[in-house]
Structures are given as structure tokens and as C-alpha cells.
Amino acid sequence: MDINWYPGHMKKTRELLKEQLKLVDMVFELLDARIPLSSKNPIIDEIIGNKPKIVILNKYDLAHEGTTRQWVQYYKKQGIKAIAVNTLEGKGLKEALSESENVTKDKMAALIEKGRKARAIRSMMVGIPNVGKSSIINQLTGRKSAKTGDRPGVTKGKQWVRIRGNIELLDTPGILWPKFEDQEVALNLAFTGAIKDEIMDIETLALKLVERLWEQEKDKLIERYKLKEEFTFPLEIMDIIAKNRGCIVSGGEIDYSRVSHMILDEFRGGKIGRISLEQPPIL
Which of 63, 177, 195, 220 suits a disulfide with 34, CB 3.0-4.6 Å? Predict the structure, then answer.
């Protein structure tokens, strides 16, 4: 599969982020705990520069627990605080807010020394689409639907959200990069739903996922779909899954569209198990 997708509005978002960064004290970088490398926009570090940053490993309830701990240590060795977050239950968010106060305490103290009044910490959350930013904002604001509004003195479009504690969040849309240099990265994003299914060849994508899971998480795939045989080709596995789940059309033919959507949905929902598709690099 050759995945290459970069809508024009993404370029505009990049320029907007550069402007908005001047308004904030620190940045939350939101990553998918299952694919921290693939879900990281490579231009983010360039844009953020020396701003204090906290990495949020979201959806860790879908990722392998031990692997997520390894990722936290990986970032720690680089001097970066990484926090595993389960948005559905709100776990990890309190720690993230506490850490935001820690990484900005010097700046806040400096402002007071200059005679300025104490003010809220101004933060920004950045990440690719569909990594859970809206859900996190809803959790932080304590509302079912985060309502944003223009802050006085801020250019239209720059929307601030008051979150728990003494913190304001500048909301930004998700961004992707201009092209996928590595097709494995593109596949990881497609597997987890960061790329819209509507522009994908779903049947090929599901087949690629079956192949990956058979290599990395064979036991979980066998348990979920009651597989009892050894297979040589991913298509054989997919055919058995379809038959076991009744994804058959008239004439006994396999409904590949149906079984493909089912496999992808069950992976994304954690029904196959807690699975991490990427391991942290060795430092």
C-alpha cells in the first residue's frame, strides 16, 4: 500500500501553530501509546523549540502495559517527562497537570520577580488527528463537550479553554506531516485509525494488520478468533476468521469488506488485547 495524504489545511495549521506557540508557556505533546514513534509529527520538535514539554501517551489502556512503561523510561532518559493516560477513565491527567506546574515554575517565579501579577499557566496541546485530544480536553474541563471561546485580546481562531487548576489550554487542530517517508509508519497510523478509512483500501489494510499481529501477537490473535492451525499466508488466517465469525455471503463466498472492518474495529477497540505495535529504540 502506498499511503500519501496531506490535505492543504494541514499546512495552514503548521503556520498557525508557530504563531500560537508564542502565546504559551509549555506544550503537551499527545501521542498514541500503541505507536509513539509513528504518531509523533516529526516537525513538532522543530516548532516547539526550547519550550517546556510533557509527552502524554494516550490510550495506554489499549497498549501493552509493560511496553508503555518502557516508553516512559525511554523519554526519561532523554530528559522528557512522559505520562501514560487513559482518557476513558481520566487516569494520568492529574499527574500531567501537576507536572505542567513543575516545568513552568521557574518562568512563573520570574514573572512575579519582575513585578507582574500571578497568572494562569498557558499551555498548548499538539498531536496528530484522532489521537484523543478532544476527549482529553473534555476530561480536563469536566464537561461532556468542551466548549471553547475566544479570549479577549487574542486573534479570532485562537481558542482558550480553562482546565482544572491554574491552567489555560490553547486548543489546536491535529496535524500530519507532508508525506510519509516510511510506509510502515503510514500503516501504523492507518491501523489505529489516524488516517480516515474512507481513503483507504480497507481489505488490504486489514490483511496487513493480520500479518503484523500474526508476527507480533500470534497468541492473542489465536485466542480472539479461535484459530487452531498454523498458517503460511495472512489471507488464510483472514479466511478462517471470516468463516468463524460468519462473514459469508450467498454462495459461500467470503465477505472481505465485512471481515476487514470487523478486524480493524476489534483491534482499535482493544478487543484482540492490549497491543503495542512499536517498541522504544535502544539508547
Answer: 63
Q: Is 58 annotated as a binding residue?
A: yes
Residues 146, 259 within the same domain = no
Residue 273 corresponds to which cell in the numbers above?
488485547
- pLDDT confidence of 149, banded at 50, 70, 90? very low
The verdict on 109 and 12 lying in the same domain is yes
Helix (H, G, I), strand (E, B) or coil at 126: strand
Q: Which domain holds residue 255?
A: 201-268
**Is 41 annotated as belonging to a binding site?**
no
| Close Cβ partners of 120 (under 8 Å, ≥ 6 residues apart) | 162, 166, 167, 168
Q: Is 133 annotated as a binding residue?
A: yes
Q: Which pLDDT does position 155 carry in this prediction?
A: 34
CA end-to-end span of the chain, whole Å?
31
- Top pLDDT among 57 and 130 is at 57
User: Is 196 assigned a ligand-binding role in the annotation?
Assistant: no
Same domain, 43 and 167: yes
Same domain, 104 and 162: yes
* Cα distance between residue 210 and residue 234, in whole Å: 6
Task: Say if residue 134 carries a ligand binding annotation.
Answer: yes
More reliable by pLDDT, 105 or 176 = 105
